[in-house]
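User: quick one, fold this
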Amino acid sequence: MGKWRKAVLSGVMAASVLAVPLSVYEAPIAAKAATQALDNKVVQKIDAEKIYQHVSALSVGIGERVTGSEAERKAVDYIAAQYRSYGLDVNIQPFTFQTYEEAKEISIQIAGHFGKGLEPSVFKYSPNTPAEGVTGEIMDAGLGRASDFAGKDAAGKIALIERGGITFAEKAANAAAAGAKAVLIYNNTTGPLKSSLPSSGNYVATLGLTKAEGEALKALIEKEQTVTATVKVLGGGMVTKTSHNVVAVKKAHKNHDTGQILYVGSHHDSVPGSPGASDNASGVAVNLEIARVLSSQQTDTEVRFLTFGAEELGLLGSYHYVSALTKEEIDRSVGMFNFDMVGSKNAGDMIMFTVDGERNVVTNTGASASSRVFKPLTYGKVGRSDHQPFHEGGIAAAVFSYAPLEPEYHQPTDTIDKISKEKMEDMAKVVGAGIYQIARKDTPALERAQVAPKPAEPPFEERPL
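Assistant:
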């Protein structure tokens, strides 16, 4: 316990991040081959092809992995099977969440006139109509301000409102308060109108129209005075779904167990419409490869490999996981290494991010390992990924990524042809070496070796994720 690594970690329990000694960065003096000797048990076993195969299985074989979908469950099963093949103890942790499901049927029919040509969009969180729809006279409600409804009979009518002046929520709320059955908001510029209402409030079915469609309806009202329409919004609304975290545990050697816990995390879900090759099949793939390599190494620290569901909905999976940890587990926790978007050839350089912009044992270990097996890393300040719940729970954490982000971020073009095997391999070597630096079993000879790891303080860099 006398050398730097154990002295640091024994003092860095969950609530004691500030106790981490932050020494001035000391570059290795020995040749790179010698300084890497400590890490050879890990870095020489990293297989870029295996990492790439995981990205392919997730982003091509399964594809879009939206939270709560059957595809996400297939990803969970794939990941769990990989962890089990490495001999790890695997648990699949379910959790439920509320989400909005878009309407399956949206229509506007104008009595005696056009209607088939309209292509409305439904506002997110719009209420449904009854199965038969709502029928009423369309009234021109201007910009939908309260004054636009003053002195007018809107009860049972459908309010036609132009975009602009006030928020969509105010327009829809004013119409509902005046007694309207439905709301049609048309754009004031080219293109379709698709937006959102607040997730709670007093609203009626609210649809969006193009500028041309809205102006055509307004002209029809002016011409014929009375125009009746039937509006349908069916199959949408808040639903309860289930997502899953995958938890794989590599136990410490029974004769050398320090009682400490390390976490290695990444999220397996993707945004709708994207196969998520970089975001975040790449992070899961690196996670799996490090798990494979470390599974055969003796460690005196328990390592928990985690993949999270519902990251794209607000870090729901990682918040659920941290909330289920006991105080005793948190007190034994050393740190959390997180991977997010680590594979795109179009992204910038490797960097570490902490939630508060302060160094911790994860960034210092990452900097130390990177100086041996790659090149010294910098760190910055960013939350918004699965390291954040761990930080808020009192566990030192950082996310490893490449920044600036690739232009394909959250796009259908986040595909496997944009993936760099080299970037994923570099990431696996850096973080694999860092985790092994903390978790490896110590010996007196290793403590005295000149190639033992040096403490490092990475410099701060303003580089947004």
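User: anything notable?
Assistant: The longest helix spans residues 421-439.
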